[in-house]
Design goal:
Length: 287
C-alpha cells in the first residue's frame, strides 16, 4: 500500500507534470472506484490543474475553477504516468485499469488496481474535506507544527498498542503497515507496547524515529518517476517484508506476526529484548 512517502513523491511528480495543463477527458473504466456522482467526472474536463495536494495517504488534484479529483490508492492501487496515452477508448473488463485522465498535451495517467479486493477510491468534490477519509485525518507527522509536545499529547492516555496507534489515520495521517514497522524498529520498541505506557524518554525516541523514518523515505523517493516508486520503497525498508533475513542493525533474524489480512515484521534483539512474539492475534510476549 502506498503510504505517506510514496504519495508525497507522487504529489511532487504530478505537480511537475500536471500543473497548468488542461484536463480534456476523464474516462471511468471500473465504475466501482467512483465514490461520488455529483459533480460528475465530466466536471473536471476543460479545467486546468491548479495544484496537487497530499492529505495523509490521499492524493488530490485541484482544478482552477472546477472540482478536486481525490483518490486513495488503497492496498493494490497505483498511478501510471504516460507521456502519450493510447488512442481509442479503454474497454471495461477484467484488467487492472480503473480510470484514465487525459491532458490537452496527449499525456496523462492511469489509475490501476491489481487483485480481487477492489478498494481503490476516486472522489470528485468541490472541497477535499467532503471526502470522509480526509475529514477524519489526524495531523500530518511531517508538518512544521507537529512537534514532540503535540505527539506526546496524542499518545497521552492512548490504551492501544503502538503498532495500532501509529496506523490509525485519525490519530496520525499517512503511516501504514510498512512504515509503522520501520518506525518501531528505529525506535527499538515492541509493536505491542502500550502507547500510554511510554516514558518521556521513550516518547522522544519514538517521535524522532517517526520523523526521521518518514523524512528519509521522502528524500529517497524525491525525483523518482512514478513507475519506480514501489521498488524504491521496498529497497529502503529494513524489517518490513524481510521475514527470515538478518536485521541490518544487529544481525538477528527478522521475525513475523501474521494476522488475518496483514502481517508485521520486527527484530527480537532490537525491539523485544530478544524474546519472539507469539504469532497470533492479540499476541503477547512469550513468557
Amino acid at each position: 500500500m502506498p503510504e505517506l512517502p510514496e504519495v508525497e513523491a507522487l504529489r511532487d511528480f504530478l505537480t511537475e507534470h500536471l500543473t497548468d495543463r488542461e484536463i480534456v477527458r476523464v474516462l471511468p473504466v471500473a465504475i466501482s472506484v467512483l465514490k461520488t456522482y455529483d459533480p460528475p467526472l465530466t466536471a473536471l474536463e476543460g479545467h486546468r490543474v491548479a495544484a496537487v495536494h497530499r492529505y495523509g495517504k490521499f492524493l488530490g488534484v485541484e482544478t482552477a475553477g472546477g472540482p478536486y479529483l481525490v483518490t486513495h490508492l488503497a492496498r493494490a492501487g497505483w498511478l501510471h504516468w504516460k507521456d502519450s496515452l493510447p488512442s481509442g477508448m479503454p474497454r471495461p473488463g477484467k484488467g487492472p485499469l480503473a480510470l484514465r485522465v487525459a491532458l490537452e498535451t496527449g499525456a496523462g495517467f492511469d489509475l490501476t488496481e491489481a487483485g480481487t479486493q477492489k478498494r481503490l477510491a476516486v472522489y470528485v468534490v468541490p472541497d477535499p474535506r467532503q471526502v470522509p477519509g480526509v475529514a477524519r485525518l489526524g495531523p500530518d507527522p511531517l508538518a512544521d507544527d507537529f512537534d514532540e509536545a503535540r505527539f506526546a499529547a496524542l499518545l497521552d492516555g492512548e490504551r492501544r498498542q503502538l503498532k495500532g496507534a501509529l496506523r490509525d489515520q485519525s490519530l496520525i495521517a499517512g503511516v501504514g503497515n510498512a512504515y509503522s514497522d520501520e518506525i518501531l524498529h528505529a525506535a527499538k520498541m515492541s509493536p505491542f507496547k502500550l502507547a500510554a505506557s511510554l516514558t518521556d524518554e521513550e516518547t522522544a525516541r519514538l517521535y524522532a524515529a517517526l520523523r526521521d523514518t518518514l523524512t528519509g523515505a521522502v528524500e529517497r523517493s524525491r525525483g523518482i518517476a512514478a513507475g519506480r516508486l514501489k521498488a524504491e520503497k521496498k529497497s529502503g525498508l529494513r524489517v518490513h517484508g524481510r521475514t527470515g533475513e538478518p536485521c541490518p542493525v544487529c544481525g538477528d533474524t527478522v521475525r513475523e506476526v501474521s494476522f488475518s489480512d496483514s502481517s508485521l515484521q520486527y527484530c527480537p534483539t532490537c525491539q523485544t529484548g530478544g524474546k519472539p512474539l507469539a504469532d497470533r492475534r492479540m499476541s503477547r510476549l512469550l513468557k
